[in-house]
UniProtKB/TrEMBL annotation:
Reaction catalysed by this enzyme: L-glutamyl-tRNA(Gln) + L-glutamine + ATP + H2O = L-glutaminyl-tRNA(Gln) + L-glutamate + ADP + phosphate + H(+); L-aspartyl-tRNA(Asn) + L-glutamine + ATP + H2O = L-asparaginyl-tRNA(Asn) + L-glutamate + ADP + phosphate + 2 H(+)
EC numbers, comma separated: 6.3.5.-
Subunit note: Heterotrimer of A, B and C subunits.
Gene3D superfamilies for the chain: Glu-tRNAGln amidotransferase C subunit, N-terminal domain
Name of the gene this protein is made from: gatC
Annotated spans, Disordered: 76-99
Family the UniProt entry places it in: Belongs to the GatC family.
Classification via HAMAP family: GatC
Highest taxon in the source lineage: Bacteria
Name of the protein in its database record: Aspartyl/glutamyl-tRNA(Asn/Gln) amidotransferase subunit C
Length: 99
């Protein structure tokens, strides 16, 4: 696959990159080189090759989604300018905002 100058300008526009006229030819050569490497990689036979890391049958353990106070409410609220609440738990007090 080979890119023409109009396609290079379009890619630069989509990427919000300003290219001067003298840079278009150099960028075209660089992009065509990158596409050449991709074509070479696609030609490599990978049938039967196991992935080295990630993917496969690996899955993350799910943890219980529990709501807690973190176990240190006094430390968290120690520097609060306004503390509110009582028996049910304390929390940060914030000014009322009405627009």
């Amino acid at each position: 696959m080979s890119l023409d100058t109009a396609t290079v300008r379009r890619i630069a526009s989509l990427a919000r990159i300003r290219l001067e006229e003298e840079e278009v030819g150099r960028m075209q050569a660089e992009l065509n080189g990158i596409l050449g490497w991709i074509e070479q990689l696609q030609a490599v036979p990978t049938d039967g090759v196991e992935p080295m890391a990630g993917g496969g049958a690996v899955s993350l353990r799910m943890r219980d989604d529990l709501v807690t106070d973190g176990g240190i409410p006094e430390k968290i609220l120690a520097n609060a300018p306004d503390r509110q609440g009582g028996e049910g738990g304390e929390y940060f007090g914030v000014p009322k905002v009405v627009e």
